[in-house]
User: Fold this.
Amino acid sequence: MTAFRFEVGGALDRDRPVEFSFNGRRLQGYTGDTLASALLANGECLVGRSFKYHRPRGIMSAGLEETSALLTVGRGASATPNTLATTEELCQGLEAYSQHCWPSLRFDIGVLNQLFTPFLGAGFYYKTFMGPGKTSRSWMFYERFIRRAAGLGRASREPDPDRYENVEGFCDLLVVGAGPAGLEAARVASGAGLNVILVERDFQLGGNLLQETVPIEDVTASAWLASRERDLRASPNIRILTRTTAFGIYDHGVVGLVERLQRSPGELDNTARERLWTIRAKRVVVAAGAIERPLIFGNNDRPGVMLASSMRSYANRWAVAAGKSAVIVTNNDSAYIAARDLAKAGIFTILVDAREKASGSMVDAALAADVEVRFGRVPLRAKGRNGVTGLQIGDPNGGHAEIIRCDAIGMSGGWSPTQHLLSQRGVRPVWSDELAAFLPGETREPIRCVGAASGVWGNDECRDSGRAGGAEAAIALGKTIVKPGFPPAGGWDNPIRQHVLNSIKGKAFVDVQNDVTLGDIILSTSEGYDAPELLKRYTTLGMGTDQGRTSAVNALALIAKMRGRQISEVGTTTFRPPFAPVSIGVLAGSDPGQRLYPTRRSPVHNASISQGANMIESGFWLRSQYFPQGAESLEAGYQREMRMVRRSVGICDVSSFGKISVQGPDAGEFLNRVYVNAFKSLPVGKARYGVMLRDDGLAMDDGTCWRVGEFDYLVTTTTACAGKVLSWLEELLETRWPDLRASATSVTEQWAAISIAGPRSRELLEPIITGMKLDNDAFPFMGVREGKIDGVDCRVARISFSGELGYEVYVPADFGENTWNLLLTGVKGLGGGPYGTETLDALAIEKGHIVGGELDGRSTLDDLGLGRMASGKKPFVGSVMRRRPELCNDNRAQLVGLVPVTDGETFEVGSILCQQQDLSGHGLGWVTSAIESPSLGHWIGIGMLNGGLSKWEGRTLLADNPIRGVRYLVKVVSPHFIDPEGKRLHG
Amino acid sequence: MAKRIYPTEGLATVSEVTYQPSTTVVQYHAWPQRYVEMAGTLAAQYKLSTSPTPGKAVCGAYASLLRVHPQRLWLVGGDLAPDVKPDLPPDIGCVQDLSHAWHTIQVDSSIASQLLNQFVSVNLVPQHFPVDSVALTPLHGIGVVLWCRPGGISVLTPRSFAQSIWHALVETRRRLPSQKPL
Assistant:
């Protein structure tokens, strides 16, 4: 028990005390407390420092609208910065720390910033660091100091130790908010047979009912709430999610929720910390309540200044007194209820009403509770530094000033319906002068705001509004039910007095979280930044974790006043997801790290691993890069493997190459249209190298195409382009030529593919394979045959990109490992072995084949030296566009070979090729691939060079890599370094 | 004869998530305007009462037909009887054996919707995804086919991704007790 905690009352479990710490001090609260209520109960009014000026800050609210009490919860890797003390459920062992203060909360060096207040007004950064005569260098220099001096909490640099989950959910009706309106909407809808999900941010259902003392339906609010909760939990077709925030609503009724699961450090170890729900709802009812607005007066950010309804919440729900003597300042009726309850709780309460008079039940109730009311007075300035010692009030013009001694100030400047979710759907709110609030605009989407979120203030009316919303949803989804009418917005006895602006004394904050003052708004508006979106960016108003929940309307009112317009004419900002901060961890999902993305494994993955393969990611695939012997480096490894292939034979897993089966009577015609060269006439049992162009005439991908039957082709692609090519073929078949009797199906997964290369390839294959002859006559280059390996059907194509005698062996994937092992045994017996992708590419580079870097979306067929492949007898995709003058320009970058001028010189991929005397601009070309060739004994490369071989062959250029600071001379040669006549290939 | 080696061999298991080896998957693709003819032919060939409507499967004695695409049917089952040869007249459509390309992971009905709805955006509760329902959907970013059968939901997954999906399902299954049932 503390001086601030009442002896009785509140929705607390006083039999279950909870130990926690704040800035290292051990404190005690109760089960049912929030961190904020427990801090207040322990007399901790000063909890943090402000964003820019390091002003002392306390607890300003009791909910998600909190602007000041942002704390770091947890330590080390588990530390979560910017946690709202007002929504953090107190749990055993919780550790909370103030942030953005040094060396301590009470003695913070950062307060020196206040000395520079005159220089830190709106647009400070723009004015100081940008514009004519100023360079970004000064910003680069000062940025680190500014960022250290300003800001909020700091995230841990350590990996997040918590676990998160993602779940998909579905319902007929999603109800956001479980106050009287939400509860009734859910009850009515579920009663009508709808499948309902009810979401509540708090850890208890009830919303405003949790602090309500007025009976509802002739029973106490708590009894009514208990009855409703019991009914809902007994309903089989409703799911209730507490501790869950609806942070975003998207197309087609998709709503994002975050459910907080882990209740205390170390507790429920197997439980994820948070769960991300993706809900698909047929209809949505938003019953998210309304947020009370602060009033603008001097020092309205002092610890002890709080929203009036929050003071009431602390008193009624958590049995905590925000002070011993309170002043409530208001312009509307709702504050009278707060004043009444504070007075009933034993807090001496004075109510200062900006209006000249007010009457009705709320006023009477406050007066009956001995609340002293001062009409026609407004707050001018709060007194005190680290807490409130008094409030100076006066008339709206600043006259009749007097100081009231108090230690707490409650503010009520009206209410803003929480319609952020609706706003996220692009629905513009409608300003109500009568209620001084934005009300939900019309929408054709199945979303309905009810209760206080629709501007209905009374509990009974909110309940009725929820009933109507639930019934409306049920009817819309085909249920037969009587639909009650929606109650009108409003519910006070006296009109609100809009936008109290008076003779402000001291620094008055419009956006407390971002330290945006009234002066900032006036300055930026006078400088022309007078539209909400501009003002936001110029002053940072409405940014940060609270996203303008408490500041937006006050800021709009100020803009309207300065521009001499109505608020409705000023416009609003558009709220975007998330409504409340969402941890990055929950967005990353349950499988961060290596399992964030799925991995593709080849059918011979395990067999490659067992041979010691060094694996490398290639897209989603894991491929063997090389097979190191001992501590062999990559460079040494691929050169050894290259020598092995050139001398004997090697095998390489190429299962990741794209494989697409194109079938049907029109398959040949289809491929004729897709490839630049002819395939309709390709004989069965033959393969052909082909290139596809895009519509714009630029090269898309290359590969071989095998004709395995009269109506059956197998298209192979590069690993990287497999998906793209399949999508392209499907698109062509479904949109351009739907009349063709052809089908394209990915069979990449169906086949394990092993490449065999080297002069002894035939020797390797002959004893293993049955059903085919391998001699040159029976199985010539680019032939395709079918046979069996170990009793399993296989396809073999005599294909080579290495320049050596080579085959590609395809077997059904589940037999891939078996086939690999057979070949491995054989290849080792011939003095060969396995090789990886590094060698695969290096062999192709020696032969002068493109290996990927050249197909960068800018190259034409002619650029790649493949122009002669293009058929002149048939049209094909890109055949017209490739003839555009710019694509036929002789000076385009074309494929060339490169060798160093100096013996022993290495190559750098990405180097820019320039004339020696003209090292400038983008140069003449660039190096795309480079290897150290063991066959030639020096480095070789291929690249793209303006004018190509015909212009530069035999000439020397300068290759410059400005990133690594390397320059060297290269000689331009043919890209075919090995066996240009193809003798070995056909051997 | 060589032994088939499956992508999930040797991996950790849980009782409700099982791998189904030797599943036959044969794709039938109908040419434009010939789907009805193809579906009828196949229903008769496999002695099925009818052909499946979109998003549905029709099950026979030893194989089932799944409608996975407007123009495509998949024949899915165990090893086909020796006298059954997947075939189709070339003027109606084409046939593609995908038995090694697609592998089946079976999730027991007791946890199927709870487990799989951590990954897929199809409502898998029995009222919405009853027996013989079929859906193509991304799971962990990978296109899979879900097929509801009397004992649970079959996840037909591309072979190269099978290990990743297996890991994801098994690991998630182990954590399920901490959750409330959906």
In short: The domain at 17-21+101-178 of chain B is CATH 3.30.1360.120 (Gyrase A; domain 2). The beta strands of chain B are 17-20, 24-30, 57-59, 63-69, 72-77, 93-97, 102-108, 134-139, 142-149, 152-158.
